[in-house]
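[09:14] KT: can someone run the structure on this one? pasting the chain below
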Amino acid sequence: MSAVAPALEKIQRRNFSRHPIHVPLDVIALRSGVPENLPGRCTDLSESGVGGMIAGELSAGQQVAVELRLPNVGVPVRARAMVRYQGQLRCGFEFAGLPVEQREMIRYWAHRVENLQFSAGEEKALVEKKLVEAEENRVEPKPIAVEVPVSAAAEEATKRSTPRIKVRRRRFYFLLCAMLLMAGLGWWQWQRSWKELEIGNAAKAPDAPLRVAPETMEMRIVSKVDPVYPEEARQAGKQGLAVLDAVIGADGSVTELRPVSGDDRLVKSAEDAVRSWKFDPYQSSGRAVAVETTIAVDFRLN
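[09:31] RB: done, structure tokens below
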């Protein structure tokens, strides 16, 4: 399977440009009906999918759930995805039914990345220009075989030029040290983030809710109440998804709700309804545990 995976990746036509990214990536896969969390790290991201390194075995065509947090974006990206390929721990995932809000978040982040890359390119060109100027202005001492009388004007010109050359050399060394320092800081941050990923599972609190895919918890609903369509939203023609982050206790009741996206009026109505929902308690290691999941309520005008 791993031998043909690179070929599939090359054949796959990409409609969206990919951008490098280095953030933790959580993958939830079903093993005999039981969800399994596989930690990993993103390598690239686009509106159509995400690539990364995953600490686990997956197969092409397998349905999974992925979650990652974009830099400078508070809301996490959570979506269903299909495994397109895997080889040497590298995986490619294609988003399946990515909500509009999630796609807009990725598009906003990609736009910021392109602007930062453009600014970095301008800065690099400026540094290279300064280095070339410093090299052109270097003065190599030449041996003098015969003593030649020097006029006062020539001596004054020499005194003026010498400090200028020293200043430009100092600027060159300063820029060189700054570039080396930035490269060292980038390497250190990468190593620190990767170490945090490796020990992330050990650092989690033992009583923290287990993350479960929305599709899994949807099948465990025992009773639910349909939300009331707000009249104000109906008159305004508002419709769409109200997305909530929910914590479901060990007894199957909804204990916490956090709004993620959607119109405020629709989200409020969805919260009022979801609080009364009941779930079949989720079992882990033979006992009921609290879980965290995402609930999406669809409001549509007739």
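[09:33] KT: thanks! The chain has three domains: 5-103, 141-204, 210-299.
[09:34] RB: yep, looked fine to me
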